[in-house]
């Protein structure tokens, strides 16, 4: 039987994937909250994509990042799950991805594998795949062209026609555990993270968007810091919100967290050289009670592994600053 103290913890569900979800979970795990991560299962790039294609497993990359973020185990275990090989046949592969794929193959179930990984990493929260079906993310561009596969949507090197809408192929059924977590949540957090490849894919799974909309939880959107080349070019915060509401329903988001601090000029210049990327413009009403502004910016420069074949964000939220602001909302 749970103690009264445990039962009064706010139930917080973070929906997304990738680096943004990692940042939110890393901070919130240090506070007295009942924490659950619902993670996209549409990744098809990098180490994850290779394992998915070669072994027929569900994509482990976003699950692995969430597990490491929630881990309170010895540093060596966290480092091991984050370790990326830089030579030989395993060049570019992440150990944690291989480990989770092996667990799925041995146990016959990604759910069983995740439970074992949570024990090994001593996680302060649960990690739940949004679906257990094998499905691919697709987008239809405004010129009618369709792009299939998350990696082809995410890795853009030339100017591209804007995205009109997203869908899954084939359509995926929801993980019942994910639906239950959403139904029981007191707070649901979206973002930060790539809008079309980390956040929206979760809403496309049958029943997820409807369950979020019906949930009595307070829905919080953490706005991205930078636009994404080939996906959210010139998007403002209101544009991000409009896209989220297109899939969830009008005015579902209750609060928006907006960073007001300015990043290091050298990093901004790096983004400009690497493509048509800029800070996301804050065009929300200045005195709105639905907008919380503050310094949520990390002062640490992210150093990417040379073995990592994917392009990563260098300007990121600070997990501690963001968590403190979110916790103030939870216990207000």
Description of the molecule:
By secondary structure, the protein is α/β, with parallel strands linked by helices. It has helices spanning 4-7, 18-28, 46-55, 61-70, 75-82, 95-107, 110-121, 150-154, 176-184, 195-204, 208-214, 237-248, 265-274, 319-330; strands at residues 11-16, 34-39, 126-129, 136-141, 146-148, 163-169, 187-190, 218-222, 255-259, 291-294. The strands form two sheets. The chain has a seven-stranded parallel beta sheet, with helices on both faces. α2 links the parallel β1 (11-16) and β2. α2 (18-28) packs parallel to α4 (61-70), α2 packs across α14 (319-330) and α4 runs parallel beside α7. The two termini are 27 Å apart. Residues 1-6 and 304-312 have low confidence and may be disordered.
Write the SSE topology.
Elements: H1 4-7, E1 11-16, H2 18-28, E2 34-39, H3 46-55, H4 61-70, H5 75-82, H6 95-107, H7 110-121, E3 126-129, E4 136-141, E5 146-148, H8 150-154, E6 163-169, H9 176-184, E7 187-190, H10 195-204, H11 208-214, E8 218-222, H12 237-248, E9 255-259, H13 265-274, E10 291-294, H14 319-330
Parallel strand pairs: 1-2, 1-7, 2-3, 7-8, 8-9, 9-10
Antiparallel strand pairs: 4-5, 4-6
Helix pairs in contact: 2-4, 2-14, 4-7, 6-7, 9-11, 10-12
């Amino acid at each position: 039987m749970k103690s009264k103290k445990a039962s009064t913890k706010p139930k917080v569900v973070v929906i997304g994937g990738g680096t943004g979800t990692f940042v939110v979970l890393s901070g919130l795990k240090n506070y007295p909250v009942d924490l659950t991560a619902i993670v996209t299962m549409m990744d098809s790039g990098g180490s994850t994509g290779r394992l998915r294609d070669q072994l027929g497993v569900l994509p482990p990359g976003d699950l692995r990042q969430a597990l490491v973020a929630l881990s309170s185990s010895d540093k060596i275990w966290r480092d091991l799950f984050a370790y990326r090989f830089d030579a030989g046949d395993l060049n570019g592969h992440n150990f944690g991805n291989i480990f989770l794929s092996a667990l799925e193959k041995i146990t016959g179930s990604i759910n069983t594998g995740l439970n074992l990984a949570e024990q090994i990493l001593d996680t302060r929260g649960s990690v739940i795949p949004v679906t257990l079906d094998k499905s691919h993310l697709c987008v239809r561009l405004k010129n009618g062209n369709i792009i299939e596969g998350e990696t082809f949507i995410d890795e853009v090197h030339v100017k591209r026609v804007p995205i009109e809408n997203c869908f899954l192929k084939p359509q995926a059924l929801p993980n019942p555990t994910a639906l239950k977590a959403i139904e029981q949540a007191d707070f649901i957090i979206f973002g930060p993270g790539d809008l079309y490849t980390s956040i929206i894919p979760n809403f496309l799974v049958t029943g997820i968007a409807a369950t979020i909309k019906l949930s009595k939880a307070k829905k919080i959107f953490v706005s991205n810091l930078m636009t994404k080349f080939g996906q959210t070019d010139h998007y403002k915060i209101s544009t991000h919100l409009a896209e989220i509401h297109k899939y969830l329903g009008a005015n579902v988001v209750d609060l928006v967290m907006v960073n007001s601090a300015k990043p290091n000029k050298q990093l901004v210049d790096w983004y400009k050289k690497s493509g048509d990327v800029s800070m996301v413009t804050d065009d929300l009403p200045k005195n709105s009670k639905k907008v919380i502004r503050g310094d949520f910016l990390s002062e640490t420069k992210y150093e990417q592994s040379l073995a990592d074949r994917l392009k990563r964000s260098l300007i990121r939220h600070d997990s501690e600053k963001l968590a403190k602001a979110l916790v103030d909302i939870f216990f207000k």
